[in-house]
What does this fold into?
Amino acid sequence: MPANGAAENALGTIGTICWTVQLVPQVWKSWRTKSTEGLSEWLVLVWGFSGVTFGVYAIVQDLNIPLILQPHLFGALSYLSWAQCQHYGRKRSRVAALAMYTAVVVLSAGFEVGMIFAVKPAYRSGNMRPIQFFGIFSSVLIALALLPQYWEIYRRKEVVGLSVLFMFVDMLGGVFSDLSLAFKAKFDVLAGITYSLVVVMDGVVVICALILNPRARRRRKRMAEGGESECTAAGVGNGQEQGGASQSREMPLEMDTITRRQEEKERGDKEHEMSGEAR
It folds into this structure.
């Protein structure tokens, strides 16, 4: 495919916009529900660091500006979601979570700047191995980061705490970023692998949500109906027991009444006989 700078930048910009806003639904959902249950904090933490390593690769490789902005925005929002996990999930104070977010961003920025200056001389001299390492390492991190989330899905038998809209927009970002690479003069294989991994592994989560979440809703509905029927049966059984108990309490009372009446009748008969003899 012939190189086309305008198409490359346009598609890269769309991909960057998707990857800028893709974590917004997740951050919003966590803030609205005040919960990050079901969201793996390792997913967003490792994704944040993968943005740093790919940022080194994108800057040294001199990719287009949208593709340079993308990993940094992605990393910042991933770290923000991780800070929410600390506040809502681990119940740390808001100040502590904010301090942790600031610290991890500053450390990541320092690491990235240091690695850029360390790798550039080797890249300029024709040694591609250092920069290839960062590209490959970023791909590996993106793939490995989803494994804890897969475990959460397997353990809960549904996708909980994770915004499906977030995963879908993340997929779109990968698709458009891949397309932007197709219009470069030379296709960047490592960048393409990274973006394609995002598409495939996010797709797995979306498919799991479409299949497992309806099953989980039906399962909870059956459990709720079963619980109601058990409560109804228990209520009827308690009513019968109470009715039986009241009947058992009423029986001695009736027997006592009959006995007293018989005794009174016998006394009346005796008095009548005695009065007849006296006459």
The first helix runs from residue 5 to 21. Residues 16 and 70 are 5 Å apart (CA to CA). The mean pLDDT is 81.
